[in-house]
Amino acid sequence: MVATTVAHAAPRPELRWGGDAEGGAPYVEADPADPSRVAGFDVEIAQLFATGLGRTPQFIQAGFTTIDASVARGDFDVALSGIEDSPARRARLAVTIPYYEFREVLTVRAADKGRFRTLADLRGRRVATLGATLAYDLLVEAQARDGIVPVTYEDDVHPYSDLALGRVDAVVLDQILARRGTRRNATLVNQDAPLAIGHYVGILAPGSTALRDRMNAILRDAMRDGRLEAILRKWDVWNEDQPRLYAHLLQDPSPNPIASSSLAPAGGPRPMGAWQGVRRYLPALLSATLVTVTLSCLSMALAVLLGMLIASGRVYGARPLRVVLTAWVELIRGTPLLLQLFVLYFGLAAFVQLPAFVAALLGLGLNYSAYESEIYRGALEAVPPGQLDAGRTLGLSERQILMLVRAPQAFRLALAPMTNDFVALFKDSSLVSVITVVELTKQTSIFAANIGSWVVPGAMCALLYLALSLPLARVARRIERRWQRPA
Amino acid sequence: MSVLAVEALDVRRGGRAIVSGCSFHAERGEIVAIMGPSGAGKTTILRALAGLDPIAAGRITVPRPVGMVFQFHHLFANMTAHKNVWLAPVHVLKRPLAEAERRASELLASLGVAERSAAMPHELSGGEAQRVAIARALALEPLVLLMDEPTASLDPERRGELAATLRRLADEGRTIVVATHDADFARACAHRVLNIGDGRIREGAARTKPLSE
User: Fold this and answer.
1) d(Cα A368, Cα A362) in Å, to the nearest integer?
2) Strand B66-69 relative to strand B144-148: parallel, antiparallel, unpaired?
3) Which of A137, A409, B127, B189 sits at a 20 to 30 Å CA gap from A61?
4) Cβ of A118 under 8 Å from any chain B Cβ?
5) Is residue B193 packed enough to be buried (19+ CB in 10 Å), middle (13-18) or exposed (0-12)?
6) DSSP string spanning A245-298?
7) What value does the mean pLDDT of chain B take?
8) What ipTM is given for this predicted complex?
């Protein structure tokens, strides 16, 4: 009888909410034993919404940098993941009232506490943060004003570990992340004076204003009756800023009674238009293009040089050398470039601290050298043995035969696949953004995040890549043609 | 007096005897033709003489460098006919480039292919490529010239020219060993014809033409 009732009861509708479990505690943290179970204050706020709406919360994992696009597409009803309020978000999405006010704080090495008190003290120095955040906007402003060098990371762990290692001189992030960072790195301290004030909000698809308004009512109720405070206290992020925020929000019942952050222009949010964005970001895109080109050319040069050495070793070397080189090539080809970049930059940091650009150059160069070496080895072995016999009967040494006869003929065979590889490397260079090198793709994603749309930045980025790769293909074809003709 | 001597030569490949108990000699200015069907071991003997393949037993006495003209010429595909000829003098004999280039031009002219100097190997006819290959072999001024199946890529008219060229080179004092299965050609140019079958040189090799002098 009971079972029948349950079976016939309409299932409670779901509240699908998105968050990034990579963000970790205290926001959204996956249970190591069961990654589909999550915990954190954002999880409990989602539960608060679900309860208020009479629904069952259903967590959907979403990447932090693409969470806006996911919620706009309707992948889930609301996103909660320490998401910052911003004019761009308000313009493109339905945004709840804030449920938390945070301070942006400056973290420095303890030894520098007296020296680096504000961003103005950091002229010419590298300051780290997460890309596409209020803190990043803060650093872009400080770049123009104080001459600091912003360095963006994809996660909030490595800014602090790199600060401890001396790769950067300061980190700017909100106080929750800063506290987590200083807890992990005993040599770091947080400066007291906040650099800016921001807020965490829930974001919904632009058409979901009715749901947003119901969520605002649920949040205000929870502020009034202490449930929100209980959640934040439980996760140890409650402080004296929150009662002030709540008082303000409870006094004014309008959907967005306060500025998104202390950086937002007075007189309400004025999001940047696409063309305004183009003008503002074009110089940065062009300099990022220069990074892409320089990195690609240098990496390819390294790959060609190492590839030739590896190929010669595999064709001419003694057996132990051949075995070692074969193993090396298989190791490099069999593991992802992304992993190699992480190992070079972060993994080796305890022994040797490579600058990001050098690590990127080495990573791309070493990776592609494995592929180049295979091309050259195949090409060397494709040179007819009669050519080598002819060289031997003339008394040329094996080395002379290689340099004068075999390698030049092999090079002609290798030219077409090499050109392909260079175009591939050129595009793969976008992967180095994970080790803080801001190249064209990374700069585009920052641009897109800041104006809240991929359309214009994506088109500009594609045009820049094409503008570079098309002439490159032409030059390569011309070299190929010339090489076919008599020398 | 023998310039070249082969005594009891054995050459094996993968455990199989290709040439066994082969002995012959050649004198200064002599053209010796090694005759035999395909697979009889002619090329193997020349490769052993040129030092390209290891020998299993026996003794080879030959003054180095030895000039070798391959059946398919094997001109270096990545350089002009001219450079094919001056490459070894510059890189092996360390001759000055200008001198080596001049000598290469002379050699190509003496073989009648001066006007093909700037051509790449793939642009040459079979006969032209062969003459460039001879020039390349002669550039090192070898006392002994080896030629493998030189008539394979020539029409009958060109064969006569080649025979004349070889006689001229022999008259200049070079010893020439020609591997061929072309009996007419062998008779036309060689002082002596050796027959080879099953990897053995057969006795009864008679001097077909007297050595000049």
Assistant:
1) 10
2) parallel
3) A137
4) no
5) buried
6) HHHHHHH--SS--S-SSTTSPSSS--PPPHHHHHHHHHHHHHHHHHHHHHHHHH
7) 88
8) 0.92
Query: What's residue A483's pLDDT?
Result: 67
Cβ under 8 Å to B: A residues 365-394: 384, 386-387, 389-394
User: What number is the average pLDDT over the span A185-210?
Assistant: 91
Which of B51, B77, B118 shows the shortest C-beta gap to A409?
B77
Interfacial B residues in 128-147 facing A (CB < 8 Å):
136-137, 140
Question: Quick one: B175 exposed, middle or buried, by C-beta within 10 A (0-12, 13-18, 19+)?
Answer: buried
What burial letters (b/e) apply to A360-387, b meaning 16+ CB within 10 Å?
Answer: bbbbbbbbbbbbbbbbbbebbeebeeeb
pLDDT higher than 60, residue B133: yes
Confidence of residue A6 (pLDDT cuts 50, 70, 90): very low
Selection from A283-292, A315-324, A470-479 with the highest mean pLDDT? A315-324
Distance CA B38, CA B66 (A): 24
* Domains of chain A (ranges, CATH numbers): 2-98+201-251 (3.40.190.10), 102-198 (3.40.190.10), 274-484 (1.10.3720.10)
CA distance B206 to chain A (A): 30
- Please give the angle made by the CA atoms of A78, A28 and A95, to the nearest 5 degrees: 30
Task: Please report which helix (H) or strand (E) contains residue A377, including its range.
Answer: helix A356-382
**Sorting pLDDT into bands at 50, 70 and 90, what band is A223?**
very high
φ/ψ (deg, to 5) at A203 = -120, 145
Contacts of B78 (CB under 8 A, 6+ apart): A405, A408, A409, A412, A487
Domains (range + CATH), chain B = 1-63+143-213 (3.40.50.300), 76-141 (no CATH)
Among A387, A394, A399, the strongest candidate for a mutation testing the B interface, having the largest count of B CBs within 10 A, is A394
pLDDT of residue A2: 43
- Burial status of residue A225 (CB atoms within 10 A of its CB: 0-12, 13-18, 19 or more): exposed
- Of B135, B64, B63, nearest in space to B100 by CA: B135
Q: How far is the alpha carbon of B173 from chain A, nearest alpha carbon, in Å? A: 20
Residue B131 reports pLDDT greater than 90: yes
Q: Is A473 on the interface with B (CB under 8 A)?
A: no
The whole-angstrom separation of Cα B106 and Cα B27 is 27
The residue in chain B having the minimum alpha-carbon distance to the alpha carbon of residue A399 is B91
Find chain A residues with C-beta within 8 A of B123's C-beta: 486
- The pLDDT tens digits for A329-372 are 999 999 999 999 989 988 887 788 888 899 999 999 999 999 99
pTM of the model as a whole = 0.73
CB–CB of A390 and B70 under 8 A? yes
Q: Which member of B68, B92, B120 has the closest CB to residue A396?
A: B92
- How many Å apart are CA A465 and CA A289, to the nearest integer? 8
